[in-house]
Backbone:
């Protein structure tokens, strides 16, 4: 079953703008991870945030986690055309397996 | 490091035939591998968890006799789609988790299966 709902489903922005994607989930988690998928390709791991962390940064990426609201957000700053992809959150509930959200399709126009 | 490969990258087969997809961790040992399927413009759905040397654990609704999983070594898991039908056409992705206990899963590039 799907754990996470992401919004928006699709996001279209211009290069240089920031992109924010949100993920909500249903049950307690050990950690939450964000992945990127280019069309028809495998997944690239972006960042992992543990349940006892509130915010994490990696380059142009900033992830927040609010366990009380069961939600997370991914912010991509100063977006580039190469950031065009689908972005998925995935929750690890402690049984090793990941449960993926519905995904956000991001289009960054030059 | 942490590269996972899949073979083949795409396959077209006739209805009723069986197709085997390989998932290899190239530079690390993976006690656990996972198999997902993804329909167009949809998310990944976990099919099964594959543990080296033991039987796979299937998610609810996934037919174990149809999707045979073998994890014969610490670097190889295979998924065989038996008696494939057009509705089995999908993108199949594997991932591997290092035996040395990180929480990160490393994903393969996926296999596009088309059943005619």
Residues:
């Amino acid at each position: 079953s799907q754990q996470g709902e992401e919004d928006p489903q699709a996001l279209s922005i211009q290069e240089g703008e920031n992109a924010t994607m949100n993920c909500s989930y249903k049950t307690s988690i050990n950690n939450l991870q964000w992945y990127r998928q280019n069309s028809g390709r495998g997944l690239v791991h972006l960042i992992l945030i543990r349940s006892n962390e509130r915010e994490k940064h990696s380059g142009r990426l900033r992830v927040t986690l609010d366990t009380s609201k069961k939600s997370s957000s991914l912010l991509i700053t100063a977006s580039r055309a190469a950031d065009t992809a689908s972005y998925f959150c995935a929750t690890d509930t402690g049984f090793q397996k990941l449960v993926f959200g519905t995904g956000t399709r991001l289009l960054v126009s030059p | 490091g942490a590269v996972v490969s899949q073979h083949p990258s795409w396959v077209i087969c006739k209805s009723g035939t069986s197709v085997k997809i390989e998932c290899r961790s190239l530079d690390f040992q993976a006690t656990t591998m996972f198999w997902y399927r993804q329909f167009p413009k949809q998310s990944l759905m976990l099919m099964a968890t594959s543990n080296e040397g033991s039987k796979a654990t299937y998610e609810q609704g996934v037919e174990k006799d149809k999707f045979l999983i073998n994890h014969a070594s610490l670097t190889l898991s295979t998924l065989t789609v038996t008696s494939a039908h057009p509705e089995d056409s999908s993108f199949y992705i594997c991932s591997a988790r290092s035996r040395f206990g990180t929480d990160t899963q490393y994903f393969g590039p996926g296999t596009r299966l088309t059943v005619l």
Summary: The mean pLDDT of chain B is 91. Chain B touches chain A through 26 residues (CB under 8 Å).
